[in-house]
Structure formats: C-alpha cells, structure tokens
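User: Please fill in residues for this 255-position structure.
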C-alpha cells in the first residue's frame, strides 16, 4: 500500500499492531523510511518499507520480485495510492475568469484532456498495472484466499453524482470522478473474474477525511478512516460473498 502518511500510514499501524507483516509502500524513500522509523519509535511496531511508485513499471517489477523472494506470496493488496490534484485544480479553477462554480474543480467545458490523463494515470492505469503484477502472488496465499482493496471515492459513484439528491458541485469533479468511476468498473470486472479463486475485490471509500490529498478539508481523522478498511482487508474463509462491493464511510454505496 502507499502508506507513508494519512489513511495508509494509520492502516499500517492497525495491521502491524495485530501482528501482521505489512509492507509500507512509498515513492519517496526518505519519507517511507521515516514513516517506518516513526512506527517503531512511537509505537514499537514493525513495518517494512517498500520503494514503490505505482506509475513506474520498473519499481513495480522490483517490488514484486522482493515480495516473491521474501515471502513467495501476498495475502492482501491495498491500492491506496492516488491523486486528486486538488491544489492544482483550485488554482486552475481560479484562473478561469468566467467560471462561477464554487468548488475546487474545473468546469467540464473548461477542462483539457491533460487533466484526465493525469488523473487516470495514477488513479486507474497504475492500479491496473500493479494489481496485474501482484495477482500471481495473491494466488499463492497460504490462507487459501486473498483480498484486493481499491481505495475509491464517492465522486466515482455515477448514481450518486447524477441522482436527484446529488450535490451539484460533484458534477464538476470530471477528471478525478471519471478516473474513480473507471476504477470502480475495473473492480467489478476483476471481482467477477477472481471470485471462484476466493480472491475478494472491493471498492472502499473512507468518506471525507482530513488529509493532504484533499487539501485538509474537515472530516474524519485518518485513523477513523483506516478502521473502516479493516473488515475488507481482514476477510476470512467464511466471506465468500464479501466481494464486488462498494462501501463509503462504512455504508453500501451505489455504483
């Protein structure tokens, strides 16, 4: 998982505290190793740093090789890396003088293809590449089952964004929302594909969380959000039907 801060770091903390072997992925080695040291110094917890940039094919290959060499398998994959580009979008939106939308997204009519490419590169294509690379290791899980958790957003729910009670501002989350909607669609397909192999694949949205990715908007703490992921990360042999689900803030969400 991408986990040197926010929700990811707190999820690593919870899992390590329960005795699980956890690899903390981060693209910045200094920040990643600092997070591992912080967990050890402040909480006495052991986690392993994994140098991983999900947009870098060579680092994905190296990460797979390390996991295979050290364990020969992977039980759970949490795809937590993502980018909303909110700071940049806020600036871009303020630069569009005729835009009257009171939200941090550019109007679709003012959007450029580059916005979509940036969002899709990290939030969609990178997830597919990493997941495809690691599925062979998940198939080798000694548990006899595995789990893939894709961290998504309520902005990826087309039914919520287009419904009668939808927040009209959400309609403007075009590039980010589209990338998360694509991730949700991929999750449905992958869950169907892997169900007979007892690999559970789900989309989980923590709701609004105060983190760097959303410009520290007020919401739940990263620790509160991390706890929402535990039931989907720690699936058991009895959870055959716990797949192809979309949950937001602990409640079922429409696709």
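Assistant: Residues filled in for all 255 positions:
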């Amino acid at each position: 998982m991408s986990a040197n801060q926010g929700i990811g770091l707190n999820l690593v903390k919870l899992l390590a505290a329960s005795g699980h072997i956890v690899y903390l992925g981060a693209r910045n080695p200094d920040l990643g190793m600092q997070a591992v040291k912080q967990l050890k110094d402040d909480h006495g917890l052991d986690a392993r740093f994994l140098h991983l940039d999900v947009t870098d094919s060579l680092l994905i290959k190296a990460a797979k090789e390390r996991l295979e060499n050290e364990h020969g398998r992977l039980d759970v994959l949490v795809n937590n890396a993502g980018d909303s580009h909110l700071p940049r979008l806020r600036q871009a939106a303020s630069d569009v003088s005729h835009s009257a939308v009171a939200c941090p997204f550019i109007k679709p009519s003012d959007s450029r293809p580059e916005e979509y490419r940036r969002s899709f590169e990290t939030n969609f294509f990178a997830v597919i590449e990493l997941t495809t690379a690691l599925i062979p290791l998940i198939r080798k899980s000694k548990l006899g089952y595995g789990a893939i958790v894709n961290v998504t957003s309520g902005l990826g729910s087309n039914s919520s964004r287009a419904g009668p009670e939808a927040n009209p501002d959400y309609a403007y989350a075009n590039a980010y929302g589209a990338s998360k909607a694509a991730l949700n669609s991929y999750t449905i397909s992958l869950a169907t594909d892997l169900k007979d192999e007892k690999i559970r694949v789900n989309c989980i949205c923590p709701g609004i969380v105060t983190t760097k990715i959303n410009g520290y908007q007020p919401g739940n703490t990263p620790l509160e959000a991390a706890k929402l992921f535990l039931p989907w990360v720690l699936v058991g042999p009895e959870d055959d039907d716990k797949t192809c689900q979309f949950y937001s803030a602990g409640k079922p969400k429409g696709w």
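For context: Residues 87-102 have pLDDT under 50 and may be disordered.
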